[in-house]
Amino acid sequence: MHKINPVLSGRWRTFLQEVDAQLPTPVELHCFGGFVLAACYGLPRPTGDVDYVTATPRTSATSIEALAGEGSELGKKHRLHFQRVMIADVPEDYDQRLVRIFAKDFAKLRLLAFEVHDIVLSKVSRNHPKDLEDAQFLAKAGWLDPAILRQRYRKELRPNLANERRHDLTLELWLEACFGRP
């Protein structure tokens, strides 16, 4: 496994700097999805949003959405936005593996990125073709370990899922698509 070296493109940098400058108080966001995959893991697919599951303090989710959510002035200006994901199946202990990204770039905006295996596992229950393509890219690039995916799935995700058999099958199909037959 490699160590991440987050890269912030000019368009994203300008947007996030404006958000940071306009925030009334510090905000911490637990981020995952395409933005994190592109910035931290080199995914070439463009995205127009920063998906997050948790905002701290909790009330800051409302202010970040008003300031820079979809349809906000900043969102329209930059054609980028923040998006709170209200329903997501994430590994139980994902927050123990969060990594702060772009810490030196912002005074009030604290972006904490999911670890790559946690991002992939958060997409298994949705089972969207785009998410599988992202997982295949990450596996080919050497970011994923099938043993870690299986272990975290069994310990931290599966106990909280409805229809476990369906998700078990999805995980096995994804592992085969990413790594071939064991």
Throw out a few tags for this protein.
182 residues; alpha/beta; 2 domains; 5-stranded mixed sheet
Written overview of the protein:
The protein is an alpha/beta fold and 182 residues long. It folds into 2 domains: 106 residues; 62 residues, no CATH class. The protein is 47% helix and 14% strand. It is built from 8 helices and 5 strands, in the order αβαβααβββαααα. It has a 5-stranded mixed beta sheet with strand order 3-2-1-5-4. Helix 5 crosses helix 7.
Brief sketch in words of this structure:
With 182 residues, the chain is of the alpha/beta class.
Beta-strand residue percentage? 5-15%
Element pattern in H and E: HEHEHHEEEHHHH
Contiguous low-pLDDT stretches (5 residues minimum) are none
Structure class:
alpha/beta
Query: What overall geometry do the principal axes of the alpha carbons give?
Result: globular
Tell me the helix content.
40-55%
Q: Distance between the terminal alpha carbons, to the nearest Å?
A: 19 Å
Radius of gyration: 16 Å
